[in-house]
Amino acid sequence: MEWSIQDIARLAGTTSRTLRHYGEVGLLPPSRIGSNGYRYYDADALTRLQRILLLRELGLGIPAIIEVMEGQRDNVQALSGHLQWLEQEKSRLDRQIASVELTIHKLEGGEQLMADQMFDGFDHTQYKGEVEERWGRDAYRESDAWWRAKSKEERKAYQDQHKQIAADYAAAAAAGEVPGSDSVQAIVARHVDWLNLSATVTGGPITAVRLRYYGDMYVGDARFAANYGGLEGAEFVRDALAVYAAQSL
Fold this sequence. Notes:
Low-confidence stretches: 122-127
Radius of gyration: 21 Å
Number of domains: 3
Protein backbone atom coordinates (compact mmCIF):
# COMPACT_ATOMS: atom_id res chain seq x y z
CA MET A 1 0.00 0.00 0.00
CA GLU A 2 0.97 3.61 -0.36
CA TRP A 3 -0.46 6.86 0.87
CA SER A 4 -0.50 10.41 -0.45
CA ILE A 5 1.28 13.21 1.36
CA GLN A 6 -2.09 14.57 2.49
CA ASP A 7 -3.05 11.17 3.93
CA ILE A 8 0.24 10.89 5.83
CA ALA A 9 0.00 14.43 7.18
CA ARG A 10 -3.51 13.74 8.48
CA LEU A 11 -2.61 10.36 10.01
CA ALA A 12 0.58 11.59 11.65
CA GLY A 13 -0.88 14.88 12.88
CA THR A 14 1.65 16.95 10.97
CA THR A 15 1.57 19.07 7.82
CA SER A 16 2.36 18.49 4.16
CA ARG A 17 4.86 21.33 4.40
CA THR A 18 6.74 19.52 7.17
CA LEU A 19 6.80 16.28 5.19
CA ARG A 20 8.10 18.08 2.12
CA HIS A 21 10.83 19.65 4.26
CA TYR A 22 11.80 16.21 5.59
CA GLY A 23 12.09 15.09 1.97
CA GLU A 24 14.17 18.09 0.91
CA VAL A 25 16.77 17.47 3.63
CA GLY A 26 16.93 13.75 2.80
CA LEU A 27 15.23 12.62 5.98
CA LEU A 28 12.02 11.25 4.47
CA PRO A 29 12.08 11.04 0.67
CA PRO A 30 8.78 9.97 -0.91
CA SER A 31 8.57 6.40 -2.13
CA ARG A 32 7.62 7.73 -5.53
CA ILE A 33 6.41 10.89 -7.21
CA GLY A 34 3.45 10.49 -9.55
CA SER A 35 3.17 11.94 -13.03
CA ASN A 36 0.97 14.62 -11.50
CA GLY A 37 3.82 15.62 -9.17
CA TYR A 38 2.10 14.22 -6.06
CA ARG A 39 4.26 12.50 -3.45
CA TYR A 40 3.41 9.00 -2.25
CA TYR A 41 4.74 7.01 0.70
CA ASP A 42 4.87 3.24 1.29
CA ALA A 43 4.96 1.20 4.52
CA ASP A 44 8.75 1.58 4.90
CA ALA A 45 8.38 5.35 4.68
CA LEU A 46 5.66 5.25 7.35
CA THR A 47 7.97 3.30 9.66
CA ARG A 48 10.73 5.81 9.06
CA LEU A 49 8.34 8.69 9.81
CA GLN A 50 7.32 7.03 13.06
CA ARG A 51 10.96 6.94 14.12
CA ILE A 52 11.43 10.58 13.09
CA LEU A 53 8.44 11.70 15.16
CA LEU A 54 9.64 9.70 18.18
CA LEU A 55 13.04 11.37 17.95
CA ARG A 56 11.34 14.76 17.67
CA GLU A 57 9.44 13.92 20.87
CA LEU A 58 12.84 13.45 22.52
CA GLY A 59 13.72 16.99 21.48
CA LEU A 60 16.25 16.23 18.74
CA GLY A 61 16.71 18.72 15.90
CA ILE A 62 16.79 17.73 12.23
CA PRO A 63 20.63 17.39 11.95
CA ALA A 64 20.73 15.15 15.03
CA ILE A 65 17.84 13.02 13.73
CA ILE A 66 19.59 12.52 10.40
CA GLU A 67 22.71 11.40 12.25
CA VAL A 68 20.75 8.95 14.40
CA MET A 69 18.80 7.56 11.45
CA GLU A 70 21.97 7.04 9.42
CA GLY A 71 23.69 5.35 12.33
CA GLN A 72 20.87 2.90 13.04
CA ARG A 73 19.22 1.67 9.85
CA ASP A 74 17.53 -1.38 11.40
CA ASN A 75 13.96 -0.17 12.01
CA VAL A 76 13.03 -3.04 14.34
CA GLN A 77 16.08 -2.55 16.55
CA ALA A 78 15.62 1.21 16.62
CA LEU A 79 11.90 1.05 17.39
CA SER A 80 12.56 -1.52 20.13
CA GLY A 81 14.78 1.05 21.81
CA HIS A 82 12.10 3.71 21.42
CA LEU A 83 9.50 1.33 22.83
CA GLN A 84 11.62 0.64 25.89
CA TRP A 85 11.91 4.38 26.56
CA LEU A 86 8.15 4.88 26.08
CA GLU A 87 7.38 2.04 28.49
CA GLN A 88 9.69 3.58 31.08
CA GLU A 89 8.03 6.96 30.56
CA LYS A 90 4.57 5.37 30.93
CA SER A 91 5.65 3.65 34.13
CA ARG A 92 6.94 6.94 35.52
CA LEU A 93 3.72 8.77 34.66
CA ASP A 94 1.61 5.97 36.16
CA ARG A 95 3.61 6.28 39.39
CA GLN A 96 3.19 10.05 39.45
CA ILE A 97 -0.55 9.77 38.86
CA ALA A 98 -0.92 7.24 41.65
CA SER A 99 1.19 9.42 43.95
CA VAL A 100 -0.87 12.56 43.31
CA GLU A 101 -4.15 10.64 43.63
CA LEU A 102 -2.99 9.28 46.99
CA THR A 103 -2.04 12.77 48.19
CA ILE A 104 -5.48 14.12 47.20
CA HIS A 105 -7.18 11.21 48.95
CA LYS A 106 -5.21 11.77 52.16
CA LEU A 107 -5.79 15.53 52.12
CA GLU A 108 -9.51 15.08 51.64
CA GLY A 109 -9.65 12.54 54.46
CA GLY A 110 -7.47 14.53 56.82
CA GLU A 111 -4.91 11.72 56.92
CA GLN A 112 -1.18 12.10 57.54
CA LEU A 113 0.94 12.51 54.41
CA MET A 114 3.88 10.15 53.87
CA ALA A 115 6.82 11.77 52.09
CA ASP A 116 8.09 8.53 50.56
CA GLN A 117 4.70 8.04 48.89
CA MET A 118 4.26 11.65 47.76
CA PHE A 119 7.38 11.74 45.64
CA ASP A 120 7.25 8.36 43.97
CA GLY A 121 8.04 8.82 40.28
CA PHE A 122 9.66 12.23 40.72
CA ASP A 123 13.35 11.33 41.16
CA HIS A 124 15.86 12.33 38.50
CA THR A 125 16.37 8.72 37.35
CA GLN A 126 13.11 9.09 35.42
CA TYR A 127 15.29 10.30 32.54
CA LYS A 128 17.45 7.16 32.43
CA GLY A 129 15.86 5.77 29.28
CA GLU A 130 15.92 9.12 27.52
CA VAL A 131 19.57 9.83 28.31
CA GLU A 132 20.55 6.34 27.14
CA GLU A 133 18.51 6.83 23.97
CA ARG A 134 20.23 10.11 23.17
CA TRP A 135 23.78 9.65 24.40
CA GLY A 136 24.23 5.98 25.37
CA ARG A 137 24.43 3.98 28.59
CA ASP A 138 27.85 5.30 29.56
CA ALA A 139 26.52 8.86 29.49
CA TYR A 140 23.69 7.96 31.85
CA ARG A 141 25.98 6.07 34.22
CA GLU A 142 28.45 8.96 34.37
CA SER A 143 25.78 11.64 34.74
CA ASP A 144 23.98 9.64 37.44
CA ALA A 145 27.23 9.25 39.39
CA TRP A 146 27.99 12.96 38.92
CA TRP A 147 24.58 13.98 40.29
CA ARG A 148 24.55 11.52 43.21
CA ALA A 149 28.00 12.69 44.30
CA LYS A 150 26.62 16.17 44.95
CA SER A 151 25.29 17.22 48.32
CA LYS A 152 21.75 18.50 48.71
CA GLU A 153 23.10 22.05 48.90
CA GLU A 154 25.23 21.60 45.76
CA ARG A 155 22.27 20.25 43.81
CA LYS A 156 20.13 23.18 44.85
CA ALA A 157 22.86 25.68 43.98
CA TYR A 158 23.26 24.10 40.54
CA GLN A 159 19.51 24.25 39.88
CA ASP A 160 19.20 27.78 41.26
CA GLN A 161 21.99 28.94 38.96
CA HIS A 162 20.02 27.82 35.92
CA LYS A 163 16.81 29.35 37.26
CA GLN A 164 18.60 32.70 37.50
CA ILE A 165 19.92 32.35 33.96
CA ALA A 166 16.41 31.58 32.70
CA ALA A 167 15.00 34.55 34.63
CA ASP A 168 17.65 36.83 33.13
CA TYR A 169 16.77 35.67 29.61
CA ALA A 170 13.10 36.45 30.30
CA ALA A 171 13.93 39.88 31.70
CA ALA A 172 16.10 40.70 28.69
CA ALA A 173 13.38 39.65 26.24
CA ALA A 174 10.76 41.65 28.15
CA ALA A 175 13.02 44.71 28.01
CA GLY A 176 13.18 44.46 24.22
CA GLU A 177 16.75 43.18 24.01
CA VAL A 178 17.65 41.22 20.88
CA PRO A 179 19.40 37.81 21.04
CA GLY A 180 22.65 39.23 19.63
CA SER A 181 22.94 42.15 22.05
CA ASP A 182 25.94 42.34 24.37
CA SER A 183 23.77 41.96 27.46
CA VAL A 184 22.03 38.84 26.16
CA GLN A 185 25.30 37.33 24.95
CA ALA A 186 26.68 37.83 28.46
CA ILE A 187 23.81 35.69 29.75
CA VAL A 188 24.64 33.06 27.14
CA ALA A 189 28.26 33.03 28.33
CA ARG A 190 27.03 32.22 31.85
CA HIS A 191 24.70 29.60 30.39
CA VAL A 192 27.60 27.93 28.56
CA ASP A 193 29.68 28.00 31.75
CA TRP A 194 26.77 26.33 33.56
CA LEU A 195 26.49 23.64 30.89
CA ASN A 196 30.21 23.00 31.13
CA LEU A 197 29.87 22.32 34.85
CA SER A 198 28.18 19.06 33.88
CA ALA A 199 30.55 17.96 31.14
CA THR A 200 29.87 14.29 31.87
CA VAL A 201 26.16 14.93 31.33
CA THR A 202 26.49 17.02 28.19
CA GLY A 203 29.07 14.77 26.53
CA GLY A 204 32.07 17.08 26.87
CA PRO A 205 32.88 20.80 26.69
CA ILE A 206 30.33 22.83 24.77
CA THR A 207 31.05 23.23 21.05
CA ALA A 208 29.21 25.35 18.50
CA VAL A 209 27.42 22.29 17.14
CA ARG A 210 26.38 21.09 20.58
CA LEU A 211 25.19 24.54 21.62
CA ARG A 212 22.97 24.81 18.54
CA TYR A 213 21.67 21.34 19.31
CA TYR A 214 20.64 22.48 22.79
CA GLY A 215 18.84 25.47 21.31
CA ASP A 216 16.87 23.20 18.98
CA MET A 217 16.11 20.87 21.87
CA TYR A 218 14.77 23.70 24.05
CA VAL A 219 12.34 24.68 21.29
CA GLY A 220 11.43 21.17 20.18
CA ASP A 221 10.61 19.73 23.61
CA ALA A 222 7.87 21.37 25.69
CA ARG A 223 9.51 20.18 28.91
CA PHE A 224 12.62 22.23 28.15
CA ALA A 225 10.67 25.14 26.70
CA ALA A 226 8.80 25.41 30.01
CA ASN A 227 12.09 26.36 31.70
CA TYR A 228 12.14 29.50 29.57
CA GLY A 229 8.49 30.49 29.87
CA GLY A 230 7.21 28.48 26.91
CA LEU A 231 7.87 28.32 23.20
CA GLU A 232 8.43 32.04 22.65
CA GLY A 233 10.98 32.22 25.44
CA ALA A 234 12.71 29.07 24.22
CA GLU A 235 12.96 30.51 20.70
CA PHE A 236 14.60 33.65 22.13
CA VAL A 237 17.14 31.48 23.95
CA ARG A 238 17.75 29.33 20.87
CA ASP A 239 18.46 32.42 18.76
CA ALA A 240 20.80 33.78 21.42
CA LEU A 241 22.68 30.48 21.59
CA ALA A 242 22.99 30.41 17.79
CA VAL A 243 24.60 33.88 17.80
CA TYR A 244 27.03 32.83 20.51
CA ALA A 245 27.86 29.61 18.65
CA ALA A 246 28.66 31.56 15.50
CA GLN A 247 30.67 34.32 17.15
CA SER A 248 32.29 32.88 20.26
CA LEU A 249 32.85 29.13 19.73
